[in-house]
Amino acid sequence: MKSLKLLLLQQSKLSHLGAIPLLQLDKVAENITTEQGKTLTDAHEVVEHACGMATLQMGEYVRNVSSGIDTYSVREPLGVGAGICPFNFPAMIHLWLRVVTGNTFILKPSERDPGASIMLAELAMEAGLPHGVLNIVHGTNDIVNAICYDDGIRAISFVGSNTAGLHIYGRASAKRKRVQSNMGAKNHGIVMPDANKDATLNALVAAGQRCMALSTIVFVGDSESWFGYFIEVI
Questions:
Q1: Catalytic machinery residues
Q2: Per-residue tens of pLDDT for the chain, all 234 residues
Q3: What is the 3-state secondary structure (H, E, C) of 147-209?
Q4: Domains of the chain
Q5: Does the reported pTM lie above 0.85?
């Protein structure tokens, strides 16, 4: 019964943790927009996604995969994890996955816009998250290297540039850490002469400053005449 009560208490805290940022949605989203420049609608979606992550960590159960055989999977905590956040998704990437799966977490937000991470950490304390479960460190290269080399950190998740990603992956994997390193890409969009102008404009999100955004446009044939229209609408 003691373990069941503890489990129910943990579930209650995590549910509360997921609910509190939603109550402060406008405040956190406005901070992201002010610091990073993201549109307010996009910032709202970032916060909402972060708040819903606790529901995405369930295991799986499949009955009767063979005669008299059921299969199931159980997700177990790994240990101390670290997240190195990108500037353009300060409240979504890394922040909650470690905590909601029973691990302690060290977060290094981008030095360009750390405000949202601080606000969400304060809300986590308000929700009753125990001290030491969520930790925030600030800095640049020296902090990143310390995270890579620290033997107590079991896994690192990173989103950012190719240069930083290769640096982190090489050093952390050499220390036998699990490393998730999501680096930038140069995504090209080819615009044909018969393309729909409005549909093309809608595909150009965040001024190309997202991992999967189109940062380079290749115009084919007469579509070059669209330049004036694009500039006027944007």
A1: 211
A2: 333 344 445 555 555 565 555 556 666 666 666 666 666 566 556 555 655 555 666 678 888 888 889 998 877 788 999 999 887 776 655 556 677 677 888 999 888 888 878 887 887 787 777 888 889 999 999 999 999 999 999 999 998 888 999 999 999 999 999 999 888 777 788 888 888 888 887 777 666 566 667 777 888 887 777 777 777 776
A3: HHHCCCCCEEEEEECHHHHHHHHHHHHHCCCEEEEEECCCEEEEECCCCCHHHHHHHCCHHHC
A4: 2-56+78-183 (3.40.605.10), 187-233 (no CATH)
A5: no
Q: What angle do CA 108, 112, 114 make, to 5 degrees?
A: 50
Q: What are phi and psi of 13, to 5 degrees?
A: -65, -40
Q: How far apart are CA 183 and CA 28, in angstroms?
A: 26
